[in-house]
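Example 3.2
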Amino acid sequence: MARAGLTAERVTIAGAELADEIGLEQVTMAQVARRLGVKDASLYTHVRSLEDLRGRIALLAADDKTIRIAEATAGRAGKEALIAFANAWREYAHRHPGRYMATQTPIQIDPELAASAPGPRRAVELTYGMLRGYGLAEPDLTDAVRLLRSTFHGFVALEAAGGFAHERSPQHSWIRVLDALHTTLEHWPSSREGDPS
């Protein structure tokens, strides 16, 4: 019988908290059970496996990250929206490193859970909406999304790993990177120019 008050949501939140503290890859079902004060077997009433738990953490994080980006970018457009979007992304990665990694790691997610989770869909809508403010349309939109994701994730991953040892602060570089992205988006080459022949 399941322990009273124990739910899939509580198990997921406990796993997410642990991921932030020790890293997503270090989280085990035994550690989550200890955190909740239950036996390992009790968790399997609510989540099927460690992979299922990681998928749930990824969806929880995607929802949370998207809400923060939506709040930051509300009413903004162009460079202002880009900066707010990027800063919210980076701040989330700093505050919730384990959850953030769950959103960037290939994880098998239950299709039923994924279909009912608003975060990933809303993230796509927000990103494409912000980029449409630069007058981009497909296939350029997809290419621009990939550029932003690569830049934001690359920067925060290197930052988290201590990869910016130069005396110039990462914050100064971050500001310049966003300036460069804005300029690139404003002067995006047409898809014909960039497509391989």
